[in-house]
Amino acid sequence: MADLKPKSEISFAGTFFSSAFAACFAELCTIPLDTAKVRLQLQKKTAVGEGIGVTKYRGTLDTVVTIAREEGYAALWKGIVPGLHRQFVYGGLRIGLYDLVKVFLLGSSYMGEVSLFINILAALLTGALAIAVANPTDLVKVRLQAEGKLPLGVPRRYSSAFHAYYTIVRQEGFTALWTGLGPNIARNAIINAAELASYDQVKQTILKLPGFTDSVLTHLLAGLGAGFFAVCIGSPVDVVKSRMMGDSSYRSTIDCFIKTLKNEGFFAFYKGFVPNFGRIGSWNMVMFLTLEQVS
Protein backbone atom coordinates (compact mmCIF):
# COMPACT_ATOMS: atom_id res chain seq x y z
CA MET A 1 0.00 0.00 0.00
CA ALA A 2 2.95 2.31 0.46
CA ASP A 3 3.93 2.77 -3.19
CA LEU A 4 1.61 4.51 -5.61
CA LYS A 5 0.47 2.18 -8.37
CA PRO A 6 0.03 3.39 -11.94
CA LYS A 7 -3.59 4.34 -12.49
CA SER A 8 -4.07 1.62 -15.10
CA GLU A 9 -3.28 -1.04 -12.49
CA ILE A 10 -5.89 0.15 -10.03
CA SER A 11 -9.19 -1.72 -10.12
CA PHE A 12 -11.66 0.04 -7.87
CA ALA A 13 -14.14 -2.85 -7.95
CA GLY A 14 -11.46 -5.40 -7.10
CA THR A 15 -10.04 -3.30 -4.27
CA PHE A 16 -13.53 -2.46 -2.97
CA PHE A 17 -14.68 -6.08 -2.70
CA SER A 18 -11.34 -7.29 -1.31
CA SER A 19 -11.45 -4.54 1.32
CA ALA A 20 -15.11 -5.16 2.09
CA PHE A 21 -14.48 -8.89 2.58
CA ALA A 22 -11.46 -8.26 4.82
CA ALA A 23 -13.36 -5.67 6.90
CA CYS A 24 -16.41 -7.93 7.33
CA PHE A 25 -14.24 -10.88 8.39
CA ALA A 26 -12.44 -8.72 10.95
CA GLU A 27 -15.78 -7.38 12.23
CA LEU A 28 -17.14 -10.90 12.74
CA CYS A 29 -14.06 -11.91 14.72
CA THR A 30 -13.85 -8.87 17.01
CA ILE A 31 -17.36 -7.48 17.60
CA PRO A 32 -17.59 -8.84 21.20
CA LEU A 33 -14.78 -6.43 22.13
CA ASP A 34 -16.61 -3.63 20.34
CA THR A 35 -19.79 -4.39 22.30
CA ALA A 36 -17.78 -4.23 25.54
CA LYS A 37 -16.21 -0.94 24.44
CA VAL A 38 -19.60 0.66 23.66
CA ARG A 39 -21.08 -0.43 27.01
CA LEU A 40 -18.07 1.01 28.89
CA GLN A 41 -18.26 4.28 26.95
CA LEU A 42 -21.99 4.67 27.56
CA GLN A 43 -22.02 3.81 31.25
CA LYS A 44 -22.22 6.60 33.79
CA LYS A 45 -21.76 6.41 37.56
CA THR A 46 -24.89 5.75 39.57
CA ALA A 47 -25.15 7.62 42.86
CA VAL A 48 -25.27 5.38 45.92
CA GLY A 49 -25.37 6.98 49.35
CA GLU A 50 -23.65 10.32 49.71
CA GLY A 51 -21.24 11.16 46.94
CA ILE A 52 -20.42 7.56 46.17
CA GLY A 53 -20.66 6.30 42.62
CA VAL A 54 -20.76 2.76 41.32
CA THR A 55 -20.53 1.41 37.83
CA LYS A 56 -21.93 -1.82 36.50
CA TYR A 57 -18.93 -2.78 34.38
CA ARG A 58 -15.34 -2.81 35.64
CA GLY A 59 -12.94 -3.39 32.79
CA THR A 60 -13.03 -5.32 29.54
CA LEU A 61 -13.14 -8.88 30.85
CA ASP A 62 -15.76 -8.05 33.49
CA THR A 63 -17.91 -6.37 30.82
CA VAL A 64 -17.72 -9.37 28.49
CA VAL A 65 -18.44 -11.83 31.32
CA THR A 66 -21.33 -9.74 32.70
CA ILE A 67 -22.98 -9.38 29.30
CA ALA A 68 -22.64 -13.11 28.61
CA ARG A 69 -23.99 -14.05 32.06
CA GLU A 70 -26.93 -11.64 32.14
CA GLU A 71 -27.92 -11.55 28.48
CA GLY A 72 -26.42 -14.66 26.92
CA TYR A 73 -23.41 -15.13 24.67
CA ALA A 74 -25.37 -14.00 21.62
CA ALA A 75 -25.63 -10.51 23.16
CA LEU A 76 -21.89 -10.08 22.55
CA TRP A 77 -22.66 -10.16 18.83
CA LYS A 78 -25.52 -7.65 19.05
CA GLY A 79 -25.20 -5.27 16.15
CA ILE A 80 -23.33 -7.75 13.96
CA VAL A 81 -25.80 -7.38 11.05
CA PRO A 82 -25.52 -3.57 10.78
CA GLY A 83 -21.85 -4.00 11.70
CA LEU A 84 -21.37 -6.11 8.57
CA HIS A 85 -23.45 -3.60 6.59
CA ARG A 86 -21.14 -0.86 7.86
CA GLN A 87 -17.92 -2.69 7.11
CA PHE A 88 -19.04 -3.67 3.63
CA VAL A 89 -19.86 -0.07 2.70
CA TYR A 90 -17.36 1.84 4.86
CA GLY A 91 -14.51 -0.68 4.69
CA GLY A 92 -14.88 -1.09 0.95
CA LEU A 93 -15.00 2.64 0.23
CA ARG A 94 -12.30 3.89 2.59
CA ILE A 95 -9.67 1.47 1.27
CA GLY A 96 -11.03 1.15 -2.26
CA LEU A 97 -10.76 4.90 -2.76
CA TYR A 98 -7.44 5.30 -0.92
CA ASP A 99 -5.06 4.73 -3.85
CA LEU A 100 -7.40 6.52 -6.25
CA VAL A 101 -7.38 9.64 -4.07
CA LYS A 102 -3.58 9.51 -3.90
CA VAL A 103 -3.51 9.36 -7.70
CA PHE A 104 -5.86 12.37 -7.79
CA LEU A 105 -3.65 14.32 -5.37
CA LEU A 106 -0.33 13.47 -7.04
CA GLY A 107 -1.30 12.95 -10.66
CA SER A 108 -1.50 9.73 -12.66
CA SER A 109 2.08 10.08 -13.94
CA TYR A 110 3.63 10.00 -10.45
CA MET A 111 5.68 6.88 -9.64
CA GLY A 112 7.47 5.86 -6.46
CA GLU A 113 7.10 6.18 -2.71
CA VAL A 114 4.34 8.43 -1.43
CA SER A 115 5.03 10.88 1.41
CA LEU A 116 3.44 10.51 4.84
CA PHE A 117 1.57 13.81 4.33
CA ILE A 118 -0.16 12.55 1.17
CA ASN A 119 -1.01 9.23 2.84
CA ILE A 120 -2.61 11.08 5.76
CA LEU A 121 -4.50 13.54 3.55
CA ALA A 122 -5.85 10.77 1.30
CA ALA A 123 -6.94 8.70 4.30
CA LEU A 124 -8.68 11.69 5.92
CA LEU A 125 -10.66 12.33 2.75
CA THR A 126 -11.64 8.71 2.11
CA GLY A 127 -12.55 8.12 5.77
CA ALA A 128 -14.84 11.16 5.82
CA LEU A 129 -16.50 10.28 2.51
CA ALA A 130 -16.98 6.62 3.38
CA ILE A 131 -18.61 7.20 6.78
CA ALA A 132 -20.87 9.91 5.37
CA VAL A 133 -22.37 7.14 3.23
CA ALA A 134 -22.27 4.45 5.95
CA ASN A 135 -23.46 6.50 8.97
CA PRO A 136 -26.95 4.85 9.16
CA THR A 137 -25.35 1.43 9.58
CA ASP A 138 -23.10 2.75 12.36
CA LEU A 139 -26.05 4.34 14.15
CA VAL A 140 -28.09 1.12 14.12
CA LYS A 141 -25.12 -0.93 15.31
CA VAL A 142 -24.56 1.37 18.32
CA ARG A 143 -28.30 1.46 19.14
CA LEU A 144 -28.50 -2.34 19.15
CA GLN A 145 -25.34 -2.67 21.25
CA ALA A 146 -26.73 -0.14 23.73
CA GLU A 147 -30.01 -2.05 24.18
CA GLY A 148 -28.52 -4.28 26.86
CA LYS A 149 -27.95 -1.37 29.24
CA LEU A 150 -31.71 -0.82 29.59
CA PRO A 151 -33.11 -1.88 33.01
CA LEU A 152 -34.72 -5.29 33.39
CA GLY A 153 -38.39 -5.24 32.42
CA VAL A 154 -38.02 -2.30 30.05
CA PRO A 155 -39.08 -3.41 26.55
CA ARG A 156 -36.41 -3.33 23.89
CA ARG A 157 -36.91 -0.78 21.16
CA TYR A 158 -35.65 -2.88 18.28
CA SER A 159 -36.14 -6.56 17.43
CA SER A 160 -33.59 -6.64 14.60
CA ALA A 161 -31.32 -4.45 12.49
CA PHE A 162 -33.94 -3.92 9.80
CA HIS A 163 -36.59 -3.17 12.43
CA ALA A 164 -34.19 -0.58 13.88
CA TYR A 165 -33.75 1.14 10.50
CA TYR A 166 -37.54 1.20 10.02
CA THR A 167 -38.32 2.37 13.58
CA ILE A 168 -35.75 5.18 13.52
CA VAL A 169 -37.09 6.52 10.21
CA ARG A 170 -40.74 6.21 11.34
CA GLN A 171 -40.28 7.74 14.80
CA GLU A 172 -37.41 10.19 14.29
CA GLY A 173 -37.40 10.92 10.58
CA PHE A 174 -35.14 9.87 7.70
CA THR A 175 -32.42 12.36 8.58
CA ALA A 176 -32.14 10.79 12.06
CA LEU A 177 -30.15 8.00 10.39
CA TRP A 178 -27.34 10.54 10.20
CA THR A 179 -27.43 11.34 13.95
CA GLY A 180 -23.90 11.88 15.21
CA LEU A 181 -22.57 12.46 11.68
CA GLY A 182 -20.25 15.30 12.79
CA PRO A 183 -18.30 13.36 15.43
CA ASN A 184 -18.53 10.24 13.29
CA ILE A 185 -16.85 11.98 10.34
CA ALA A 186 -14.21 13.41 12.69
CA ARG A 187 -13.66 10.02 14.34
CA ASN A 188 -13.49 7.96 11.16
CA ALA A 189 -11.45 10.45 9.16
CA ILE A 190 -8.91 10.63 12.00
CA ILE A 191 -8.87 6.89 12.68
CA ASN A 192 -8.71 6.06 8.98
CA ALA A 193 -5.73 8.38 8.59
CA ALA A 194 -4.09 6.88 11.67
CA GLU A 195 -4.72 3.32 10.48
CA LEU A 196 -3.85 3.54 6.79
CA ALA A 197 -0.99 6.04 7.04
CA SER A 198 0.56 4.35 10.08
CA TYR A 199 0.16 0.90 8.51
CA ASP A 200 2.10 2.06 5.46
CA GLN A 201 4.71 3.79 7.64
CA VAL A 202 5.13 0.93 10.15
CA LYS A 203 5.31 -1.60 7.34
CA GLN A 204 8.01 0.40 5.55
CA THR A 205 9.98 0.69 8.81
CA ILE A 206 9.72 -3.04 9.57
CA LEU A 207 10.81 -4.00 6.07
CA LYS A 208 14.02 -2.00 6.57
CA LEU A 209 14.91 -4.11 9.62
CA PRO A 210 17.27 -7.08 9.10
CA GLY A 211 15.48 -10.39 8.62
CA PHE A 212 12.04 -8.97 7.89
CA THR A 213 10.26 -9.58 4.58
CA ASP A 214 6.80 -8.82 3.22
CA SER A 215 5.37 -11.72 5.26
CA VAL A 216 2.46 -12.58 7.54
CA LEU A 217 4.47 -11.49 10.61
CA THR A 218 5.16 -8.09 9.06
CA HIS A 219 1.49 -7.62 8.20
CA LEU A 220 0.42 -8.57 11.75
CA LEU A 221 2.93 -6.21 13.41
CA ALA A 222 2.04 -3.34 11.06
CA GLY A 223 -1.67 -3.94 11.69
CA LEU A 224 -1.13 -3.89 15.47
CA GLY A 225 0.85 -0.64 15.19
CA ALA A 226 -1.91 0.90 13.07
CA GLY A 227 -4.49 -0.05 15.69
CA PHE A 228 -2.46 1.48 18.54
CA PHE A 229 -2.04 4.83 16.80
CA ALA A 230 -5.72 4.85 15.79
CA VAL A 231 -6.94 4.33 19.37
CA CYS A 232 -4.58 6.89 20.92
CA ILE A 233 -5.66 9.55 18.43
CA GLY A 234 -9.32 8.65 17.96
CA SER A 235 -10.61 7.71 21.45
CA PRO A 236 -12.07 11.14 22.43
CA VAL A 237 -14.15 11.49 19.27
CA ASP A 238 -15.08 7.81 19.50
CA VAL A 239 -16.53 8.30 23.00
CA VAL A 240 -18.50 11.38 21.90
CA LYS A 241 -19.77 9.52 18.82
CA SER A 242 -20.93 6.50 20.84
CA ARG A 243 -22.67 8.68 23.43
CA MET A 244 -24.49 10.79 20.85
CA MET A 245 -25.68 7.72 18.97
CA GLY A 246 -26.61 5.77 22.10
CA ASP A 247 -28.13 8.62 24.16
CA SER A 248 -30.50 11.16 22.57
CA SER A 249 -30.26 13.61 25.53
CA TYR A 250 -27.30 15.46 23.99
CA ARG A 251 -28.21 18.47 21.84
CA SER A 252 -25.02 18.57 19.78
CA THR A 253 -21.43 17.36 19.54
CA ILE A 254 -20.20 20.35 21.57
CA ASP A 255 -22.91 19.77 24.19
CA CYS A 256 -21.87 16.12 24.55
CA PHE A 257 -18.19 17.05 24.77
CA ILE A 258 -18.73 19.77 27.39
CA LYS A 259 -21.10 17.70 29.56
CA THR A 260 -18.75 14.71 29.50
CA LEU A 261 -15.73 16.86 30.38
CA LYS A 262 -17.59 18.80 33.10
CA ASN A 263 -19.29 15.82 34.75
CA GLU A 264 -16.67 13.10 34.38
CA GLY A 265 -13.33 14.74 33.60
CA PHE A 266 -10.82 14.42 30.77
CA PHE A 267 -10.16 10.70 31.24
CA ALA A 268 -13.81 9.96 30.45
CA PHE A 269 -12.78 10.44 26.82
CA TYR A 270 -10.56 7.38 27.19
CA LYS A 271 -13.23 5.20 28.72
CA GLY A 272 -13.05 1.78 27.17
CA PHE A 273 -9.46 2.37 26.02
CA VAL A 274 -8.35 -1.20 26.73
CA PRO A 275 -11.28 -2.91 24.94
CA ASN A 276 -11.00 -0.28 22.21
CA PHE A 277 -7.33 -1.12 21.66
CA GLY A 278 -8.06 -4.82 21.96
CA ARG A 279 -10.81 -4.38 19.41
CA ILE A 280 -9.10 -2.02 16.95
CA GLY A 281 -5.66 -3.61 17.35
CA SER A 282 -6.97 -7.12 16.68
CA TRP A 283 -9.37 -5.78 14.03
CA ASN A 284 -6.51 -4.17 12.12
CA MET A 285 -4.34 -7.28 12.42
CA VAL A 286 -7.09 -9.47 10.98
CA MET A 287 -8.22 -6.95 8.38
CA PHE A 288 -4.81 -6.02 6.96
CA LEU A 289 -3.60 -9.63 7.01
CA THR A 290 -6.74 -10.74 5.16
CA LEU A 291 -6.51 -7.82 2.74
CA GLU A 292 -2.86 -8.55 1.95
CA GLN A 293 -3.75 -12.19 1.22
CA VAL A 294 -6.81 -11.59 -0.99
CA SER A 295 -5.67 -8.48 -2.88
Automatic annotation (TrEMBL):
Compartments, as annotated in UniProt: Mitochondrion inner membrane
Annotated transmembrane regions: 114-134, 216-237
Solcar repeats: 10-104, 114-205, 214-295
Signal sequence, renumbered to the chain: none
Lipid bilayer topology: Multi-pass membrane protein
Keyword Chaperone: no
Keywords: Membrane, Mitochondrion, Mitochondrion inner membrane, Repeat, Stress response, Transmembrane, Transmembrane helix, Transport
GO cellular component, one term: mitochondrial inner membrane
InterPro entries: MCP, MCP_dom_sf, MCP_transmembrane, Mito_Metabolite_Transporter
GO molecular function ontology, one term from the record: amino acid transmembrane transporter activity
Alphabetical list of SUPFAM superfamilies matching this protein: Mitochondrial carrier
Keyword Membrane among UniProt keywords: yes
PANTHER family hit by this protein: MITOCHONDRIAL DICARBOXYLATE CARRIER-RELATED
Similarity comment: Belongs to the mitochondrial carrier (TC 2.A.29) family.
Protein name, as recorded: Mitochondrial substrate/solute carrier
Protein source organism: Dillenia turbinata
